[in-house]
Specification:
Number of strands of chain B: 10
Mean pLDDT of chain B: 90
Order of helices and strands of chain A: HHHHHHHHHHHHEEHH
Distance between the termini of chain A: 56 Å
Number of helices of chain B: 15
Radius of gyration of chain B: 23 Å
Largest sheet of chain A: 2 strands, antiparallel
Oligomer: heterodimer
Mean pLDDT of chain A: 85
Largest interface: A-B, 66 and 71 residues
Structural class of chain A: mainly alpha
Largest sheet of chain B: 2 strands, antiparallel
Helix content of chain A: over 70%
Strand content of chain B: 5-15%
Low-confidence stretches of chain B: none
Bound molecules: CIS-heme D hydroxychlorin gamma-spirolactone, protoporphyrin IX containing FE
Strand order of the largest sheet of chain B: 1-2
Number of helices of chain A: 14
Number of strands of chain A: 2
Distance between the termini of chain B: 51 Å
Strand content of chain A: under 5%
Low-confidence stretches of chain A: 336-341
Shape of chain B: globular
Order of helices and strands of chain B: HHHHEEHHHHEEEEEHEHHHHEEHH
Helix content of chain B: over 70%
Amino acid sequence: MTSLFTLANICAAAVLVSLTAYVVLAGADFGGGVWDFLASGERKREQRELIAHAIGPVWEANHVWLVLVVVLLFTCFPPAFALLSTELNVPLGLMLIGIVLRGCAFAFRAYDVKPSATEHAAGRIFAGASVITPLILGICVGAIASGSIGKVSANAGTYARFFAPWIAPFPIACGIFALTLFTFLAAVYLTVDAGATPVREDFRTRALLAAVAVFVAAFGALGLAYYFAPDLHKSLMTSMWTLPQQLATGAAAVVAIAALWLRHYIIARVAAATQATLILWGWAMAQYPAIIPGRYTIDQASAPRATLVFSVWALVAGSAVLFPSLWYLFRLFKTRNSSPG
Amino acid sequence: MTDLFAARSQMAISLAFHIVFAAVGIAMPVLMVIAEWRWRRTGDEVYLDLAKRWARGSAILFAVGAMSGTVLSFELGLLWPEFMRYAGPLIGMPFSLEGFAFFTEAIFLGIYLYGWKRISPARHMLAGVAVAVSGVVSGIFVVMANSWMNTPAGFRLVDGVPVDIDPFVAMLNPGSFSQTLHMSIAAYAATGIAVAGIHAFMLRRDPANVFHRHAMSIALFVAVPAMIVQPVSGDLSARFVAQWQPVKLASLEGQFQTQQGAPLRIGGIPDMDSRQTRYAVEIPRGLSFLAFHDPNATVKGLNSVNRTDWPHVPTVHIAFQIMVGLGIYMALLGVWVTVAALRTRSGIFTDRRLLGAIAVAAPMGFAAIEAGWTVTEVGRQPWIIQGVMRTADAVTPMPALVIPFAVFSLLYLMLGVVVTVLLYRHIVKSPI
Ligand code: HDD
Ligand code: HEM
Ligand code: HEM
């Protein structure tokens, strides 16, 4: 076996880390949109205000993680990027529309000088797009993980080539799973952002309900994987790292739920984020060393060495600027005593 | 509509849309920081009000800029997968660095917009400076990637495959200096004059309004130097094009025959079939002089290459005339403002003719940016990478591209309308 720490693997890990950050951070912003959509009860208005307040300062920065995923992918793994954007052209296009509508509608609503006029329409679009985007993101990941990308010949029909790989039970189950996961993350984070207000209880209940939904969706997806993504299922169930990974994910989930139950919100936040991270890494480990299972391994898809070397340096230099700034941003707006204002 | 044409149109619409918000993202933070700084220096609350209003209005534009930029980074793959497969390792460098610049920009923007009461005034202003710096840096990186398409460098072609890749050389390709310089200046000129124009319009109705006076002064302070130097930077770009992309130069000048001592053509309509440019005012030897700083230099004509290697000449030529025309108007306006301001400080607020001339110029910078990019991009056709890869070979195999083209055009149209309405509300709500 070759070393784990090759340049290509380091770049692939950077893609994975960025994707994880996107899920853990921006995923919750989308989940917030879902809760905006589902706002109910007597504190409907307060719920919506809390969501807007929690997302406002950070969503643009959180969103950049996705840009980084794309950029790293086309720099370090150009054939994989070309293949993905060809075969997943339709869902990626739809996801983009969702991303644009969500972001713009949020900004329109937040910065309008006469909010009453736009609030309603923009609010609807913001919420609707927040539901659709995670769904499609999950579908794309599911299509990759199930190994159906790059299998159809270039002469196959339009449906077979551009639709069949993702309009399938397993990818759709992954889409639903992503949606429930983002919704869960959002509810958990919002219990922290709420501070000691009555809305906190609203989101505590919602987080617990969402946890059940995550559980159901996860087992649904796993069950479907057995039939529709057998390779993935096999390596998820039988590799040597399987047991520790699954135990750790399960433990994180239990801690998150217990902490919610006992109202230790900060612990719940950390545990929920850990749970999401471990799920993504489990997927990555299951398909390693493939980047697009059944088509490209990380090495086969990687750019020439000079580019990888440069990318690693760019990552180091970029992180030196990025992490302190991010830390400052989150310290300002996401610590407990940062009351709205 | 062929798929290729739909893809090109979608790319063009997306970029034409994004560039407006990108230019605002580069220059607007500078205006906000200056207003905030003036407030701290003078204690004049009007400046603070101005900074806050600008911030609130620009926040909308920033968000639309970020979203449309995200569309673009996906579109590179959704529309041009073969191009990205080929060019990714070469131009990924500036794009990755740009990614980090976006991060700093978005992070400090969040701090700037939401941090008025949370951090000290000095830190708040520093956050604004960080936004301004990362804005221009991201612009520079992405334009470097574009200029690589015009002057590809940093690799050797062996049997059509790039080898010996050097991403650093690719990033600092021959075109990068003149192009990034010209674009950065353009962003300050266009945004500055647009803002100044709006306030000049308001001042014509209400000349004593301090809010509009402060706003226009700051905007002009940024715009005027940029407008005055832009033709100089444009001359550098043109000479650079003459050297590296002779076919593009020939099309932007409507030069069909290779000619010694070629004339400069002002206006006119190039006819690709009869291979001549009609109705132009010709200045003898002007082109040779401008392009090579030698009145007797030989300028290559379009005839020196096959017609299949020509771009659509009238589009390029007319777009170039528009940019240069607007550029000259703006430069002269810049001189006028400078002279008027030097004569009496407050003269610029009361001279109705000058205010009118500034108000009229409001859309000109953005029009020049759109025209300039048309020159650059259409002028490079039929190549997506000059001399290396044809646009037709880069396009995705996906059929029915007219559908995404229609959908995204509609999306941009809708966003454009909403943004206009929202900004209009911001402006009419300004203090009277
Ligand atoms: C405020 C906007 C603005 C103004 C006033 C001008 N330009 Fe410009 N021009 C641009 C905005 C712009 C641009 C949109 O920013 C371009 C497109 C690509 C680029 O790098 O800059 C551009 C491109 C561009 C190019 C093509 C560069 C290439 O393809 O690599 C040339 C030759 C010029 N310009 C020349 C001029 C001249 C001689 C001007 C004289 C007045 C001028 N520009 C004014
Ligand atoms: C700096 C970043 C830019 C990059 C990397 C870039 C890249 C591209 C690519 C890949 C294409 C499609 C292939 C081609 O037609 O050559 C294209 C076309 C085009 N772009 Fe750009 N572009 C950039 C900036 C811009 C901007 C700001 C505009 C603004 C108006 C613009 C206008 C166009 C137009 C009009 C076309 C279509 C040309 C044609 O097909 O005739 N570009 N660009
Ligand atoms: C193919 C070409 C381009 C791509 C792929 C692209 C990509 C992007 C992306 C992903 C963003 C969003 C960053 C965020 O989330 O905050 C963005 C914003 C931005 N882009 Fe572009 N861009 C392109 C062309 C250009 C050009 C030609 C310029 C101008 C010089 C430019 C300057 C900027 C700036 C200044 C921002 C920040 C804008 C703001 O926040 O309003 N980009 N771009």
